Amino acid sequence: MNTLKTWFLMGLLSMLIVLLGAAFGGRAGALIALIVAVGMNGVSYFFSDQLAISMVGAKPVTERSEPQLYTIVRHLSDRAGLPMPKLYMAPSSQPNAFATGRNPGHATVVVNEGLIRQLSERELTGVLAHEMSHIRHRDILIASVAATMAASITWLAQMMQWEMLLGDVRDRRNQN
Fold it and tell me: What are the sequence ranges of the domains in the chain?
């Protein structure tokens, strides 16, 4: 069901972007907005996990470097009937973790260093179980797509703002 919601959200936001492009730029604006919407949908669907990982500066961890983390996540993924997600560690003292990816087969769990230092094994298991539930219910893609589409709407709005400002200057030049 969440996959259907994601595709619906992508389609709805794409229509909004195209309508905004058409309102401010006519056919050419609609075409540019359509290209932006398709590009942003592709990027958000296929690369949202890599974007999130790079934004927090996370690095992949191995079973040898973080055996406790691997054991917990492997146990949770086995119990949930999910493939083992990729694991990353973010260099932050904040106690946080998040899941990202487009589906359970392409999922990643990122854990901040502070989470491992500050929580007991039982508490860490609870946090990771929560992240695994996001993977199981495919919530991770919806959030990534929404964030990417919001960024593209903001970008288009800035383009339209500059077009309005520069277009006004061009109109005055043409009148003279």
Answer: 2-175
